[in-house]
Amino acid sequence: xxxxxxxxxxxxxxxxxNPRLAKYLIEQYGGADGELAAALRYLNQRYTLPPKxxxxxxxxxxxxxxxxxxIATMVYKLTKDATPEQLKEAGLEPHYVDHERxxxxxxxxxxxxxxxxxxxxxxxxxDLYEDIAAEEKARATYQWIINMSDDPDLNDGLRFLRERxxxxxxxxxxxxxxxxxxxxxxxIF
Amino acid sequence: MFTTRKxxxxxxxxxxxxxxxxxxxxxxxxxxxxxFQPPNLxxxxxxxxxxxxxxxxxxxxxxxxxxxxxxxGDGS
Lengths: 189, 76
Ligand SMILES: [Fe+2]
Hints:
The complex is a heterodimer.
Chain A: H1 19-25, H2 27-30, H3 35-45, H4 51-79, H5 84-89, H6 93-99, H7 124-148, H8 152-180
Chain B: E1 5-8, E2 24-27, H1 46-52
Antiparallel strand pairs in B: 1-2
Fe (ii) ion binds at residues 38, 64, 135, 138, 164-165, 168 of chain A.
């Protein structure tokens, strides 16, 4: 089970009314390398990994849900007061027609979220390598969104999320080392 | 130590339609270099760590848009 804390992991501030940024950010909400995909991937894989690394996937998977909430808050703030005209200018009219201002799990191009974005192979090294790749992809996506965004407050939050991806990738790399079981032994290959 | 930004010069054709980007930059994050985290690495003060996204100085590698901070950005 989880215990919910009614606050964000990092404060989300948005300084400009720019619904176009919401269109980019939705990639990290319902996209292939987004926070939903990350949370579902780790929280599902954790059952069939060796016990030594289950806790790691549990912790990171949980944190991804907190990231999902930050992205949702950003998207919501960027769109909640935008006029249909502004949403149209931002290229969000297909979204508006289907969802009005509601959030939805799709990527920046409008493709709905699908479980085919994630995998659970049951082979520990395979799954951890997918997880490392997923973190690097998420890190890169944040870089491209930061490049496209001219909102310094929003970018501050995105920088925090990107830093967390670096840490997650580091911990997954360490998990691989743990499973290799050669750590601490002086061996020359 | 290591650097977390690398550069290369892509091929430029005399017939490129747009003004060429002469130098491309990419990120090589700290997690590529540290391996299994050794004990007793330097930490940030706790409040600062909460805002930076990591307790460990070695893993802190912020990314700025080249368009956001003129001259100070990552450039690519
Ligand atoms: Fe992550």
